[in-house]
Amino acid sequence: MPKGPRFIFVIGGVMSGIGKGIASASTARILKSKGFNTTCVKIDPYLNVDAGTMNPVEHGEVFVTEDEMETDQDIGNFERYLDENILSDNYMTSGAVYLAVIENERSLKYSGACVQPIPHIPEEVIRRLNLVAKKTKADFILVEIGGTAGEYENLLFLEAARMMHLKSPESVMFMLISYFPIPSKIGEMKTKPTQHAVRALNSAGIQPDFIIARSIVPLDEPRKKKLSIFCNVRPEDIISAPDIDNIYQVPLNFEKENLGNKILKKFGIQERKRDLEEWGKMVKRATSSKKEINIGIVGKYFGTGKFTLSDSYLSVIEAIKHACWSFSVQPNILWLDAEVYENNPAKVKEELGALDGVIVPGGFGTRGVEGKIKAINFARKNKKPYLGLCYGMQLAVIEFARNVAGMTGAHTTEVNKKTKYPVIDLMSEQKEKVFAGKMGGTMRLGAYACRLKDKTIARKAYGERTIYERHRHRYEFNNALQNVLEAKGLITSGINPESGLVEIIELKDHPFFMGTQFHPEFKSRPLDPHPLFREFIKSCLNSRKSK
Ligand code: GLN
């Protein structure tokens, strides 16, 4: 194989939200299945330096990498499809790139040159992409550029891609993911919007090598031919990507049209066999499991309607699915609005009573907190399997302190600074950061070690003594109150060996009651479901059986 990394830029056309991330991740999975070292990069055009300062309703889940970066949810997709950790080098925003260029300018790194959007911004992008190539030693790097062709915001990223292609056309390729609407009154698939998207790309100096055609149904031959002429792409390089039931089917669908070998051929690399056997088995389990279990997620990011929900809690949903499929069952996920529970105990009983398990995921601030605590109280007393993730763990400690340990008014200082029992509190280093207004990228982030105690659910689930999980929070279990809470029956089953901070709590005399200060959902993979989610789902299935 000729030397050096190959870059495949993935660009969107017509509209957003059509699965650029999944298409990039799926193409990467295919190339990996052919034995190539493959990685993915996401470039986001907004000015936030990272995704950490954005509301999840606005932009979807904030994903956290092992090495402390708060990123777009697509990095999570890349990890799930590649079954590998993706590190912070593989994520950049306009904000991060501009900041680096301006900081360089301030420290005279440009030797007196006039620093300009072109070429200095694209050059910084190219430097970062080459760094990824160097560090990962990848044969293929899929680079997903956020936004769509024709937008102002991502022009300088397209310019970087164009410059890389100019320098080394044999190692750079472009893939357009575009949408083909079928207007209901016309009843015919329309290719014109995509023709415009290709024109917009052409005017940025880019000609797509492949077009991935997203639509309700596959593209037919006459349309492929037409598109081919108008867009200057061979008909065989237009790949149909019709809507599917399960996102993990996409690599298999792309391979029906032999995308992997078509890519290799264009790069002048010998074709190779793929090995998607294990992947195919997973997809089969996922799509053929019919038996359902009811899992409730008690949250608050319900502001903009149902459509955003699955994005705000994407990794949690995926982790539930991975675990369920490993038991050949299908999750029926119910969205439960915590605020409704605050003054309505009957609703708690009615909604939670019908569930097989309850999850309170991560969250921030005051809204919905008392409702979540009510839900946790119900799960504890009625022996419903409960999994609390980050805020869900902190609120479980508060519920226990108030209602079992008799600490009336116990709280987190995030909500009540004057509580008599601050069972969840800011660590001193966090106090300094918050006081100085340094909020972006300063939470406790990324992977930390956690030592598990013997004879706990966590120890049994992981099978290991020391585990590493990813964090994203400012507040912590207050160790000053640890002994009192333990004396009342709270089990602190996982402790950070360096700081002594409590990372996992459990309860005795309950089939499954667990809270984790970290976010296990970030490390669940379809081919390797997370042990805690597996244990949780197992317990949901058991409690269903015993009903
Ligand atoms: N708000 C809590 C904290 O900052 C929990 C954060 C979370 O759930 N990710 O500690």
Automatic annotation (TrEMBL):
InterPro entries: Class_I_gatase-like, CTP_synthase, CTP_synthase_N, GATASE, GATase1_CTP_Synthase, P-loop_NTPase. Gene3D superfamilies: 3.40.50.880, P-loop containing nucleotide triphosphate hydrolases. The keyword Metal-binding applies. Pathway: Pyrimidine metabolism; CTP biosynthesis via de novo pathway; CTP from UDP: step 2/2. It catalyses: UTP + L-glutamine + ATP + H2O = CTP + L-glutamate + ADP + phosphate + 2 H(+). GO terms for cellular component: cytoophidium. It comes from the Bacteria. Its EC number is 6.3.4.2. Coiled coil: none annotated. The keyword Ligase applies. Keywords: ATP-binding, Glutamine amidotransferase, Ligase, Magnesium, Metal-binding, Nucleotide-binding, Pyrimidine biosynthesis. It is an enzyme of class 6 (ligase). Residues 6-268 form the CTP synthase N-terminal domain. Residues 309-538 form the Glutamine amidotransferase domain. GO terms for biological process: 'de novo' CTP biosynthetic process; pyrimidine nucleobase biosynthetic process. GO terms for molecular function: ATP binding; CTP synthase activity; identical protein binding; metal ion binding. NCBIfam families: PRK05380.1, PyrG. Belongs to the CTP synthase family. PANTHER family: CTP SYNTHASE, CTP SYNTHASE-RELATED. This is CTP synthase. It comes from Candidatus Giovannonibacteria bacterium RIFCSPLOWO2_01_FULL_46_13.
